[in-house]
Design a protein that fits this description.
Elements lengths: L1 H70 L2 H7 L6 H15 L3 E6 L4 E4 L14 H7 L4 E7 L2 E12 L2 E11 L5
Antiparallel strand pairs: 1-2, 1-5, 3-4, 4-5
Amino acid sequence: MRLGTVRSKIFVGMGAVILLFIALSVIVTAHVVKKFGREEIARDLAAGKAAFGVHMEMRKELLHDKGRSVAQVHDLKAMMTIEDLDRETAYVSARQLSRVVESELLLLVDQNGQLLADASDKSASGEHLGQTPIIAEGLRGVESFGVIQLGKQHFFAVVSPILAADTIQGALVLGVRLDADL
């Protein structure tokens, strides 16, 4: 009988050692996976943040280039010099320009900061936008860039001054909705 109890003790002892080894292996493996998982997630987030930053910088440059180009269109400059520019003419011009540059936001603002036309809203005009910081900068002759809010929508926008005969005639606002696919 003594042989059976020795075997039993060895069996129980070996089983305990094996279970302890398995438990220790699971704990160590879980810790290693957790540590490396966090590091990998942190690296991926940092890479995603950097890529988004580059994307937004490229988007900003594209908007700036479009704004500069459109603000130099001779027909737009000539239209902005008309003293009693009617809303319909301003809207039609804004709408055509918006289609050409494929911009979700295109506003024409006169030299006093009054909205002349919103390419997406035929009835919009007359609202004073000159107090909006980036539009105010554009009306001082400085290209500006930032976020503006129109109603309940926010836009990533660029403002380009419209110059005719070295006089600021107004500003052109181009932008993309922030809730859009950037």
